[in-house]
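Run log // design_07
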């Protein structure tokens, strides 16, 4: 299979050890990750089709920050802090919903228009001079739509716009018609895992484990699975299937029902494709479905995996059957990966763990770790620095690198 995208080569010699164990359970490092990796990097929160009509909203919570993405009366989609300007209550409750014409804060009844502006407050005469409506709208957040997916960030950070960052994915997303997807009936899922978020990423960032750990995936596409390392830290994986019927029930039936989508270029026709977004997100496509999933850190030892599933707008019966089978294979795969991430994370506490020894097939971990070390150079320390010194040491290392000491 010839691919339009070309992978950066893997060097002959590279440091195969991975991040040191302490980085997987340090509370001080976790605080730095919150500041420098999560709140200021783009996060995918849904798809335009999740909120098709004015008043439809999606919520997105991350590390004490919380957003609401809302379609206005004018059809525009905007993101705001889900935080009432009176005393900080949530203006919408839950993961997803619909409001009629306005958001009404459940605490004291302040009312916001669908463009985030403050419409009015209850008992305005009790606020002395009154409340300046222009000054108390919901706080807007950056929002960008790429291929129909909704991206937001809580603060500006080192990443450029999503369109610029994900430009190498644009042709594939267009071929997948990613803007045309619809949510499946029960779109969202989540699972809480007792691990550091990096242990989830470490499992997901390589295909070396597919042969043993994922019998269904191995049966489906294990003979031709490729990781592509693209400029800008991007990482795409393609699994090509259909060269044989499949031995397992779900795989055999999937291969039989999976539609050949006219209009897809050859490299996507019988392909499961995974597009990585640093630091914690993957958007994946099969010929009959799409999804995104990400590991959202909760604490150094707790991670919430969440994702949303989508289908083609013009789905016929055969395509729907294939989608169900794909989801079944995926559900098994996800359970297998969750167990692996738990074992990997546990080992970080063992006195006898001496670090990873990575294969070339696990080069994706190395790249991810390099990106992390670049932003948080304290992760280069082989041994755990005293917790209280981690922020200062990280600053020092950053300054030394930029020559601003
Ligand atoms: S906190 Fe929203 S109205 Fe008081
Ligand atoms: Fe896996």
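design_07 sequence
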């Amino acid at each position: 299979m010839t691919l339009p995208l070309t992978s950066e080569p893997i060097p002959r010699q590279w440091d195969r050890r991975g991040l040191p164990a302490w980085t997987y359970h340090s509370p001080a490092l976790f605080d730095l990750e919150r500041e420098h990796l999560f709140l200021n990097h783009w996060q995918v929160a849904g798809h335009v089709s999740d909120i098709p009509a004015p008043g439809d909203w999606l919520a997105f919570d991350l590390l004490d920050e919380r957003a609401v993405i809302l379609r206005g009366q004018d059809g525009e989609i905007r993101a705001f802090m889900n935080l009432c300007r009176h005393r900080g209550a949530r203006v919408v409750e839950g993961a997803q919903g619909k409001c009629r014409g306005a958001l009404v804060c459940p605490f004291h009844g302040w009312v916001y228009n669908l463009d985030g502006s403050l419409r009015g407050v209850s008992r305005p005469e009790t606020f002395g001079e009154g409340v300046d409506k222009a000054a108390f709208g919901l706080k807007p957040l950056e929002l960008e739509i790429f291929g129909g997916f909704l991206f937001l960030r809580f603060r500006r950070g080192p990443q450029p716009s999503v369109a610029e960052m994900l430009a190498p994915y644009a042709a594939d997303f267009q071929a997948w018609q990613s803007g045309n997807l619809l949510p499946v009936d029960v779109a969202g899922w989540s699972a809480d895992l007792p691990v550091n978020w990096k242990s989830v990423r470490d499992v997901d960032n390589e295909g070396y484990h597919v042969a043993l750990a994922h019998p269904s995936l191995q049966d489906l596409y294990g003979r031709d699975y490729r990781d592509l390392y693209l400029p800008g830290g991007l990482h795409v994986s393609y699994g090509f299937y259909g060269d044989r019927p499949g031995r397992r029930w779900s795989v055999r039936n999937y291969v039989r029902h999976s539609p050949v989508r006219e209009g897809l270029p050859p490299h996507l026709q019988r392909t499961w494709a995974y597009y990585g977004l640093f630091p914690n997100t993957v958007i994946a496509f099969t010929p009959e479905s799409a999804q995104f999933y990400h590991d959202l850190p909760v604490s150094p030892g707790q991670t919430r995996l969440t994702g949303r599933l989508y289908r083609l707008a013009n789905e016929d019966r055969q395509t729907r059957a294939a989608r169900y089978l794909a989801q079944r294979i995926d559900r098994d795969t996800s359970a297998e990966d969750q167990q692996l991430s738990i074992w990997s994370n546990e080992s970080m506490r063992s006195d006898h763990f001496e670090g990873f020894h990575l294969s070339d097939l696990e080069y994706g971990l190395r790249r991810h770790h390099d990106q992390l070390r670049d932003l948080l150079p304290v992760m280069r320390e082989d041994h755990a620095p005293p917790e209280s010194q981690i922020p200062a040491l990280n600053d020092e290392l950053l300054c030394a690198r930029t020559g601003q000491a």
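The chain has a mean pLDDT of 95.
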